[in-house]
């Protein structure tokens, strides 16, 4: 083990284990893996998208703290394997920001906008920490909107567009960073929404 640790120190500058590599890039130890998974850095390295729900589960502590096996090392092992499963699951099923907001790209964007009175579009980028933070609010607002009469009676909706979908280039004068929320209303020029991003506030704004 001593020879191994010396070799790792020469390679990474650290002797501690676990020492984790992802796609050939040294991530660090257990805590580094969790931190970089939550920030979106691991998703960027792997070229996948990790949903906010999975990231939230990574932060959960084991419930039975009195269990004799619930030692620090056991907790670390559980978190470590959760992080690995999160990356692996997302690589397979392509789970994204959630199921509430309607995903749009260049093939359906303009038709969708034209068929609704008002649409709030979340322009986001895969792996962007701020986008990951925004996503649960967008999804919750979408759920609230779909359960209200506004979605059908007033033809309003919430959608999401990924940075590389082929749509962003048309709105570069509005989308200069990620995430950017853009409000599309029939008969009006699209505008950047800069109000409250609380789900209830988003639904109330769209329903006006």
UniProtKB/TrEMBL annotation:
Q: Which GO terms describe its cellular component?
A: endoplasmic reticulum
Q: CDD domains per the record?
A: PDI_a_family
Q: Tell me a GO biological process for this protein.
A: protein folding
* Listed Gene3D superfamilies: Glutaredoxin
Q: List, for all copies, the residue spans of the domain called Thioredoxin.
A: 81-208
Q: Which InterPro entries match?
A: Glutaredoxin_subgr, Thioredoxin-like_sf, Thioredoxin_domain
Q: Name one GO molecular function term.
A: protein disulfide isomerase activity
Q: Which family does it belong to?
A: Belongs to the protein disulfide isomerase family.
User: What name goes with this protein?
Assistant: Thioredoxin domain-containing protein
List the source organism: Lotharella oceanica
Taxonomic lineage is: Eukaryota, Sar, Rhizaria, Cercozoa, Chlorarachniophyceae
């Amino acid at each position: 083990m001593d020879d191994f640790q010396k070799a790792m120190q020469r390679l990474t500058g650290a002797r501690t284990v676990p020492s984790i590599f992802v796609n050939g890039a040294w991530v660090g130890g257990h805590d580094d893996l969790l931190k970089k998974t939550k920030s979106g850095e691991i998703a960027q390295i792997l070229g996948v998208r990790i949903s906010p729900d999975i990231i939230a589960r990574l932060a959960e502590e084991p419930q039975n703290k009195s269990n004799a096996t619930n030692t620090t090392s056991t907790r670390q092992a559980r978190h470590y394997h959760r992080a690995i499963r999160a990356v692996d699951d997302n690589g397979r099923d392509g789970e994204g920001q959630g199921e509430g907001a309607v995903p749009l790209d260049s093939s359906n964007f303009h038709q969708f906008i034209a068929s609704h009175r008002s649409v709030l579009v979340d322009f986001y980028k895969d792996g962007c920490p701020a986008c990951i933070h925004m996503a649960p609010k967008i999804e919750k607002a979408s759920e609230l909107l779909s359960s209200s009469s506004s979605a059908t009676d007033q033809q309003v909706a919430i959608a999401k567009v990924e940075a590389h979908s082929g749509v962003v280039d048309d709105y570069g004068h509005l989308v200069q960073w990620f995430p950017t929320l853009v409000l599309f209303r029939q008969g009006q020029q699209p505008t950047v929404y800069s109000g409250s991003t609380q789900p209830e506030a988003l639904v109330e704004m769209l329903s006006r």
